[in-house]
Amino acid sequence: MSESPVSMHPGPIQPLVGTTLREHVLSGMQAAPGATGEFTSLINHLSLAIRIINSRVRQAGLAGMLGYTGNTNVQGEAVQKLDIYANDVLLNVLERSGHCGIIASEEMDDPVFTQHPSKYIAMFDPLDGSSNIDTNGTIGTIFGIIRRKVTDSKPTLEEALRPGYEIAAAGYALYGPATQFVLSTGQGVHGFTLDPSIGEFFLSHPNIRCPQKGTTYSVNGGNRALWSEGTRKWAEFLKASDKASGRPYGSRYIGSLVADAHRTLLKGGIFAYPADEKSPKGKLRILYEANPMAFLFEQAGGMAIDGVNRILDVQPKELHERTPLVLGSVEDVMTFKRFQLGQQV
Ligand code: AHG
Ligand code: MN
Ligand code: MN
C-alpha cells in the first residue's frame, strides 16, 4: 500500500518558545559600546504602550471606542476616539519611561518637552489608517526614535527637526488578524508577533528582506486626475501587459500606510502616495510616517524616495510637514523615479 502524503502521525510538536522582543533588543545592545540599558528600556516601554493600545483596539466595538471625538487635529483631520486613546497611552508610557526629552505626535500640535535629562526623542503616528477603524480594517502605530546630541540641556523643537538618516530606531505595530511589531535598530529589520494569551512579542520574522522587485503596486488610483503626467504614465505602464517583466502588476490598496507598507516590505512591489494637484507636498508626514518607513525599507534592502530624492536625506522644517512618499523594491521604486524624470524605462 502506498503511503499517504498527509501523515496521520506528525513528528514531535516544537514548543513555541522563541526569542522575545526584550531578549532580541538586549542581545543587539550588548554589542554596543557604552550601552547603559536605557535604549532597551525605551523599546520595552514602546512595546508596553503597543500592547495596551492593542488591547483597546481589540475591544473597540464593545467598549464604545469607535467613532469620532468631534474635534480636528492641527492638520484639519477629524480625530477619532482611538486616535486620542493611542496618543495618550504612548505619551503617558514614554513620559514615565524617563528616556524621552521630546515627544511628538501627529495628534499634538506641539511636542511635549519633559523635565529630566534624557537621551532620546520619540515621534509617532499613534494610530495610522484611522479611516479603517470603523470597518475593522488593519490599522497600526508608527514610531521613530532619534538620539539627542545633548542630553542635559532644555529640549527644543529644532532637535526633533532632523533628517531621517539620524534615526536610531524605527518601527511599527500592526493591529491586524495578528498583532505584529516590526522593528529596526539599525541592524536589519525584524518582525515579532504577539502571543495574546501571555502578552509577549516573539520573534517570528527574523531579518526581513524586501525583494528586489515585486508584482503589485499600491496607490490611491482615485486621485489619477490630480496626478502629474509622470505618475499617470507610470500607472499605465504597470497596468500594461508584458509577461517578461511581470506586468500587468496586481493592485492592492488598503488606505492604511502601515498595512500597505507591511505587505510591500514582505512581498515586494511598490507603495506610492505621490504629490498631486490637491496635495502638492503629498499627504504623509515626514517625521512620523515617511521617515520611520524609509528607515525600515532601507534597512531591509528596499528604497524610499519622495518621487526623486531619498526620503532620509530630507531636512524637515516643520513638525507636521508632509512629503510625497514612494517606497518598496529597489527596481520598482527606480521605475517610478524614471517616470518622474521623464526618462526612458
Ligand atoms: P492617519 O490615519 O494617521 O491620518 O493616516 C492616514 C494615511 C495613511 O495611513 C494612508 O496611507 C493614507 O492616509 C491614505 O490616504 P487616502 O485615503 O487619501 O488614500
Ligand atoms: Mn498615518
Ligand atoms: Mn494617525
What can you tell me about this protein's structure?
28% of the residues lie in helices and 23% in strands. The protein has an eight-stranded mixed β-sheet with strand order 4-3-5-6-7-8-9-10, with helices on both faces. A five-stranded mixed β-sheet has the order 12-11-13-17-15, sandwiched between helices. It has a two-stranded antiparallel sheet with strand order 1-2. It starts with 20 loop residues before the first helix and ends in a 5-residue tail after the last helix. The longest helix has 22 residues, at 38-59. It folds into two domains: 21-205, Fructose-1,6-Bisphosphatase, Chain A, domain 1, CATH 3.30.540; 216-341, 3-Layer(aba) Sandwich (D-Maltodextrin-Binding Protein, domain 2). The chain is globular, with a radius of gyration of 21 Å. Strand 7 (167-175) and strand 8 (179-184) form a beta hairpin. It is α+β, with helices and mostly antiparallel strands. The mean pLDDT is 93. The protein has seven helices and 17 strands. The protein binds 2,5-anhydro-1,6-di-O-phosphono-D-glucitol and manganese (II) ion (2 copies). 2,5-anhydro-1,6-di-O-phosphono-D-glucitol (AHG) binds next to strand 5.
Indicate the topology.
Blueprint: H1 21-30, H2 38-59, E1 68-72, E2 78-80, H3 81-97, E3 100-105, E4 112-113, E5 120-128, E6 139-147, E7 167-175, E8 179-184, E9 190-195, E10 200-205, E11 216-218, H4 229-239, E12 250-251, H5 257-267, E13 270-273, E14 284-285, H6 286-299, E15 303-305, E16 322-323, E17 325-328, H7 330-340
Parallel strand pairs: 3-5, 11-12, 11-13
Antiparallel strand pairs: 1-2, 3-4, 5-6, 6-7, 7-8, 8-9, 9-10, 13-17, 14-16, 15-17
Helix pairs in contact: 1-2, 2-3, 4-7
